[in-house]
Amino acid sequence: MNIRLDYGRDGLPLRLGDDLDISLVEPRKGAPLSDPAGAVLSAVRAPIGRQPLGEIARGRRNACVVISDKTRPVPYRTVLPVLLRELEAAGLASAAVEILVATGLHRANTRDELVEMLGGDIVDGCGIRNHDARDAAAHRLLETTARGTEVWIDTGFLDADLKILTGLIEPHLMAGFSGGRKAIAPGLAAVATMRSLHGAVMLEGNIGPGILDGNPFHDELLGIARRVRPDLLVDVTIDRQRRLTGVFAGDIEQAHAAGVAFLEPHVHVALERPADIVITSAGGYPLDDTLYQAVKGLTASLNIVRHGGTIILAAALGEGLGSADFQKLLLATRSADDFMQRVTADGFFAIDQWMMQHLCQVLRKAEVTIVSDRLAAADRQRLFLPTETRIDAALERALQRHGHAAHIAVVPQGPYVLSTVQGRRLALGKAWQDAA
Q1: Are residues 172 and 314 located together in one domain of the fold?
Q2: Which mean pLDDT values do the consecutive 10-residue runs of the chain (436 residues) have?
Q3: Number of domains comprising the chain
Q4: Same-domain check for residues 204 and 68
Q5: How far lies 195's CA from each of 107, 130, 292, 296, 350, in Å?
Q6: Which residue range forms the structural domain that includes residue 303?
Q7: Residue where a domain stops, chosen among 265, 293, 328
Q8: Catalytic pick among 106, 198, 358, 407
Q9: What pLDDT was estimated at residue 436?
Q10: C-alpha span between 112 and 109 (Å, rounded)
Q11: Do residues 374 and 306 both lie within one domain?
Q12: 106 catalytic per annotation
């Protein structure tokens, strides 16, 4: 069997012998739209639960269009020109429109990255700003929620006369599905808000890929979105080649729900039995540029790996391990138990602790091997995880551990797939208790 894993920009070939017990976990993903720009235009002219964008925009003084950062492969070269033309036709020229990158706590996007994402004409013709969660003075406190979350949101966005959100709907390790309300928080929230939203207690609750009902993180984000009340949401779904398969515009809750309902049957794959070995990816570029983001490929495999199994994660890691904050946590961690004792201690908080916590949630249930031919040797030595440069070497080591009769699940698209065993969606903090 010859398979290509999503890895970097070009993919990674994987050849498996016919004598192995293999389950290929591939979703249908949906068909690409024949007229993607036309689909965006139709969606914003007939949005779900909202007036057409042109009517909403008429008479407004200015607009803020929120976009995802470089870690999300949203086809903005198709989406943004349509939105900007509709705004201009309603009387809002490009000088009155700010494009705000919802970085959350990720680093700012560079000009070259923005050009790749948006195109040079938009970068040169519009005002573009990276949200900065660490700049406390650039946020305004709206409320403190019943769960104790201080809601600090980007002031420029709050003060905009017209607020438009955009994003990608896909399975998400915390929110169940990305898109919608995530553009506001954590996308435009301050560090103080993250202390609760991404806190250790929250992440041990009923959160995980594909989980919306009873998900406290999802519920908290919805409450924040209702408080902010954006004017329009424009979310999309894509296929493996990053082509548009759906456009969902309108009310932030109704349009997002419609997008999730469309996407879910296309990305959900249910195995009959768990796997001893899971070979997966981090979804390729841009998600697998850092280990911080690549952890999502591991969490997406927790539903299908058996307790005591092995997950082999192929990720290019061209940018290395991740932020300085994440690297500091990695260097200070010797085991999953060690980190979990620290992160759950009263008063402990560190930026990016949440992705370390998710990594440790994986390690409670399975062993992990990272496969990358681009990770620097110095970074390999700093990790407390085993690494390989070749995927066949990682698989051979796993087969020595589990035997050549082991059940192997291969997930070429990694976190873009909602993988389950018989449809069961496990909370990440409880997945290690699964006896399937």
Answers
A1: no
A2: 96 96 92 97 98 98 97 96 97 96 95 96 94 97 95 98 98 97 98 92 95 97 96 97 97 98 97 98 96 97 96 97 92 86 89 94 96 93 91 97 98 97 94 72
A3: 2
A4: yes
A5: 18, 21, 18, 20, 9
A6: 2-26+272-433
A7: 265
A8: 106
A9: 54
A10: 8
A11: yes
A12: yes
Known catalytic membership, residue 172: yes
Q: Domain boundary residue among 235, 265, 295?
A: 265
Give the distance between the most distant pair of CA atoms in the chain: 68
pLDDT at residue 435, rounded to an integer: 61
State residue 428's pLDDT score.
95
Radius of gyration of the CA atoms of the chain, in A: 21
Q: Measured between alpha carbons, how far is 364 from 380 in angstroms, rounded to an integer?
A: 21
* CATH for 90: 3.40.50.11440
Q: What is the pLDDT of residue 374?
A: 94
Among 131, 139, 172, 266, which one carries the catalytic annotation?
Answer: 172
Tell me how many degrees the CA angle 159-160-166 measures, rounded to the nearest 5: 125
Q: b or e along 36-53 (b: 16 or more beta carbons within 10 Å of the residue's beta carbon)?
A: bbebbbebbeebbebebb
Matching residue, tokens 């925009």: 57
What's the per-residue H, E or C state across the chain? CEEEECCCCCCEEEECCCCCEEEECCCCCCCCCCCHHHHHHHHHHCCECCCCHHHHHCCCCCEEEEEECCCCCCCHHHHHHHHHHHHHHCCCCHHHEEEEEECCCCCCCCHHHHHHHHCHHHHHHCEEEECCCCCHHHEEEEEECCCCCEEEEEHHHHHCCEEEEEEECCEECCCEECCHHHHCCCCCECHHHHHHHCCHHHHCCCCCCCCCCCCHHHHHHHHHHHHHCCCEEEEEEECCCCCEEEEEEECHHHHHHHHHHHHHHHHEEEECCCEEEEEEECCCCCHHHEHHHHHHHHHCCCCCEEEEEEEEEECCCCCECCCHHHHHHHHCCCCHHHHHHHHCCCCCCCCCHHHHHHHHHHHHHEEEEEECCCCCHHHHHHCCCCEECCHHHHHHHHHHHHCCCCEEEEECCHHHCEEEECCECCCCCCHHHCCC
Which residues are within 8 A (CB) of 428 and not within 5 positions of it... i.e. 6 or more apart?
173, 203, 207, 208, 299, 302, 358, 361
Indicate the pTM of the whole model: 0.95
